[in-house]
């Protein structure tokens, strides 16, 4: 990579892991001492991830339940400290910053959540949900509070006349817009969308996706778009990252991934994505289930379900490697 | 596809809920047929009445709701006028339902074998215990659950979400029903698990001639699975036809909008079509076409309720001005 491309990186993640440990309680420790077959349970939610997001890019993060995509998103958003590794925003390690700098950097990345019902405080009026953080952080003052809130509401397609209403007075699609408005009110540069359209009806989903794209153009936003819906990710993303059981298995531009998926998991995933064009499709089952992250298989995590698995796959974990410019994949088959 | 009488014939079905706030016409004059081994996709957004249609066929509409009018002919028998005793023989035996949330369908405190065996013995007490067990084992094997013998002894919480849904499907299959109604069965599942469930469903329709009604909001799933599609809006069936016909040449403005708002390969990065406004409340539906407030082509004539028309062979559309031009 030359210097020029590195300067363009807004977010860079280096060797990031997140482990959740369920430690033994007092009784458990005694039982263990006495020879009981129990141990601490460790879940490697994210395992040695290296990804980057360029300025102004929309990166789609795809994977099935439990693959660690939300955890990775939270670490990027600065609300969950990784166990290992570095998360850089604009070249600065966000978990090492202090004081004003830490706060300013944290504001630059905002998050939009999945459930428009659970993510809004039911006892706050819309204007306070949206404007509170802006006042606290000095982005607007008490005097121009209304002005600021109206501007954000207008941008998100909400009627400022309703700003004194409570969340329960809005529909699901409007609530999701409130969530977006809340994120935008502190002038972020980067937005992490965690399954932000998953709970919405098709016609509302289209409205929100269009809003995301409009905001991107107007405000030069960078998105990390987390979703299990590959159709949606394909629609909105410039680049796609695919995760399986806590590990990144493939990344590349949307065109390349869809034209020639490299990793066997990506191939399976894309093959089974239903689309309007495939009619009377003969569905094929995928062998096996996603293993439990508490007790993952040895070697390549995908080998028990992979049709091409060899002995090497059972023993050695394949490293994520460049297979073409801007394209990475973690599979032994690429060694020829 | 259709030989003789269809497995299910729904005629002018109306299911209303009599609430304090007013009468909710959840299903309002819906008619369709499902042939033997046919897969019908019943599509609509939240509140369109698609689930209530399914519940009506199963006789599961609770007060304040009730089927006020219409016929549901299943293998030639009208279910609407059938006494409750008749339902007992039918439900879980000839007609089965799969629900969205597998966590809610299975009893958490009973083992899988208890729940499965009950479904068989409730309808036929003459079979021996070992034969019943064998049928449960076979059903679990059929939906791709490994080592069914051990799994029969497990409790629901010991299964993953996808496995649980497969157990629910296995229970639906136990008595080899003629009709299965699946209400959003894959909505909560991941892509690879969904593929597995769709594979089982498809195999079932093809191998045993079981008819399927697949209720979903996901047009892409229906595109791959169904032979026929019915689109519902605000309690009414707005369009019906063979899957290829409807998806390639949608005639109702709502269907056109719905298809336009689905992200797909050839629309990557472009703005999606937005249906303006939102789904109306069923309590205060305006007279006339329920879609006219959101319809781009609405004219004064739409204030009058549109009749169902058959503008082309095999197509049913409820619109004054169905789209008759070239394909989109």
Précis, in short:
Chain A is α/β, with parallel strands linked by helices. Chain A has twelve helices and twelve strands. Chain A has one domain: P-loop containing nucleotide triphosphate hydrolases (Rossmann fold, 3-Layer(aba) Sandwich).
Number of strands of chain A: 12
Low-confidence stretches of chain A: none
- The first-to-last residue Cα distance of chain B is 28 Å
Number of helices of chain A: 12
User: What fraction, in percent, of the residue positions of chain B are helical?
Assistant: 25-40%
Mean of residue pLDDT values of chain B: 87
Would you mind describing this structure in some detail?
The complex is a heterodimer of chains A (336) and B (328). Chain A is α/β, with parallel strands linked by helices. Chain A has a single domain, classed as Rossmann fold, CATH 3.40.50. Chain A has twelve helices and twelve strands. Chain A has helices spanning 3-7, 26-33, 69-77, 99-108, 126-136, 145-155, 172-184, 202-219, 230-236, 254-259, 264-271, 311-315, and strands at residues 9-22, 41-54, 58-62, 84-89, 92-93, 109-112, 190-194, 222-227, 239-244, 247-253, 321-324, 327-329. In chain A, the strands form two sheets. In chain A, strands 6-7-8-3-9-10-12-11 form an eight-stranded mixed β-sheet, sandwiched between helices. In chain A, strands 2-1-4-5 form a four-stranded antiparallel β-sheet. In chain A, strand 4 and strand 5 form a beta hairpin. In chain A, helix 5 crosses helix 6. Chain A starts with a helix and ends in a 7-residue tail after the last strand. Chain B is an alpha/beta fold. Chain B has a domain at 8-36 and 44-94 and 179-187 and 215-318: P-loop containing nucleotide triphosphate hydrolases (Rossmann fold), CATH 3.40.50.300. Chain B is 30% helix and 23% strand. Chain B is built from eleven helices and twelve strands. In chain B, the strands form two sheets. Chain B has an eight-stranded mixed β-sheet, sandwiched between helices. In chain B, strands 2-1-4-5 form a four-stranded antiparallel β-sheet. In chain B, a hairpin with a 2-residue loop joins strand 1 and strand 2. In chain B, helix 5 (129-142) packs across helix 7 (161-173). Chain B is globular. Chains A and B meet through helix 8 and helix 9 of A and helix 7, helix 8, helix 9, helix 10 and helix 11 of B.
């Amino acid at each position: 990579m030359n210097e020029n491309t590195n300067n363009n990186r807004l977010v860079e993640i280096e060797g990031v892991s997140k482990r959740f440990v369920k430690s033994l309680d007092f009784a458990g420790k005694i039982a263990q001492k006495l020879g009981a077959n129990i141990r601490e349970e460790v879940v490697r939610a994210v395992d040695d991830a290296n990804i980057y997001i360029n300025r102004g890019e929309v990166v789609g993060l795809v994977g099935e339940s439990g693959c660690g995509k939300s955890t990775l998103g939270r670490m990027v958003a600065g609300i969950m400290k990784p166990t290992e590794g570095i998360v850089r925003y604009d070249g600065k390690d966000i978990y090492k910053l202090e004081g004003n700098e830490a706060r300013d950097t944290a504001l630059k990345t905002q998050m939009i959540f999945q459930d428009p019902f659970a993510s809004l405080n039911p006892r706050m009026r819309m204007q306070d949900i949206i404007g509170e953080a802006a006042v606290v952080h000095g982005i607007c003052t008490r005097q121009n509070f209304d002005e600021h809130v109206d501007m954000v509401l207008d941008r998100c397609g909400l009627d400022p006349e309703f700003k004194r209403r409570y969340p329960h007075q809005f529909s699901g699609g409007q609530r999701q817009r409130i969530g977006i408005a809340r994120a935008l009110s502190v002038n972020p540069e980067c937005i992490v969308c965690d399954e932000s359209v998953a709970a919405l009806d098709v016609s509302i989903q289209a409205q929100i996706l269009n809003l995301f794209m409009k905001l991107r153009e107007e405000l030069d936003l960078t998105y990390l778009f987390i979703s299990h819906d590959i159709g949606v990710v394909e629609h909105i993303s410039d680049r796609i990252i695919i995760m399986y059981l806590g590990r990144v298995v493939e990344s590349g531009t949307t065109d390349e991934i869809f034209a020639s998926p490299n990793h066997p998991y990506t191939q399976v995933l894309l093959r089974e994505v239903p689309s309007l064009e495939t009619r009377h499709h003969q569905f094929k089952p995928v062998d096996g289930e996603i293993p439990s992250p508490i007790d993952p298989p040895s070697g390549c995590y995908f080998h028990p379900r992979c049709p091409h698995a060899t002995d090497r796959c059972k023993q050695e974990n394949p490293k994520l490697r460049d297979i073409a410019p801007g394209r990475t994949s973690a599979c032994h088959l690429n060694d020829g | 596809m259709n030989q003789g009488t269809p497995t299910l014939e729904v005629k002018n079905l109306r299911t209303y809920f009599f609430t304090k706030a007013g009468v909710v016409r959840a299903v309002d004059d819906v008619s369709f047929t499902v042939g033997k081994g046919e897969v019908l996709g019943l599509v609509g957004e939240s509140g369109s009445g698609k689930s209530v249609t399914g519940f009506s066929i199963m006789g599961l509409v609770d007060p304040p709701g009730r089927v006020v009018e219409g016929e549901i002919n299943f293998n030639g028998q009208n279910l609407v006028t059938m006494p409750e005793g008749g339902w007992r023989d039918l439900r879980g035996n000839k007609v089965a339902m799969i629900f969205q949330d597998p966590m809610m369908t299975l009893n958490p405190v009973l083992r899988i074998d208890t729940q499965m065996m009950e479904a068989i013995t409730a309808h036929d007490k003459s079979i021996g215990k070992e034969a019943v067990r064998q049928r449960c084992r076979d059903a679990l094997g059929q939906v791709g659950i490994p080592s069914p013998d051990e799994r029969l002894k497990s409790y629901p919480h010991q299964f993953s979400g996808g496995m649980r849904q497969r157990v629910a499907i296995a229970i639906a299959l136990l008595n080899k029903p003629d009709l299965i109604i699946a209400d959003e069965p894959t909505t909560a599942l991941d892509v690879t698990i969904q593929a597995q469930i769709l594979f089982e469903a498809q195999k079932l329709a093809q191998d045993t001639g079981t008819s399927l009604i697949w209720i979903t909001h996901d047009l892409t799933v229906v595109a791959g699975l169904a032979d026929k599609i019915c689109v519902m809006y605000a309690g009414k069936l707005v369009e019906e036809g063979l899957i290829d016909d409807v998806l390639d040449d949608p005639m109702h403005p709502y269907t056109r909008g719905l298809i336009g708002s689905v992200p797909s390969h050839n629309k990557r990065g472009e703005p999606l079509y937005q249906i303006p406004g939102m789904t109306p409340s069923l309590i205060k539906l305006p007279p006339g076409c329920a879609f006219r407030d959101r319809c781009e082509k609405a004219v004064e004539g739409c204030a009058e309720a549109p009749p169902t028309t058959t503008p082309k062979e095999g197509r049913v559309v409820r619109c004054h001005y169905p789209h008759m031009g070239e394909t989109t």
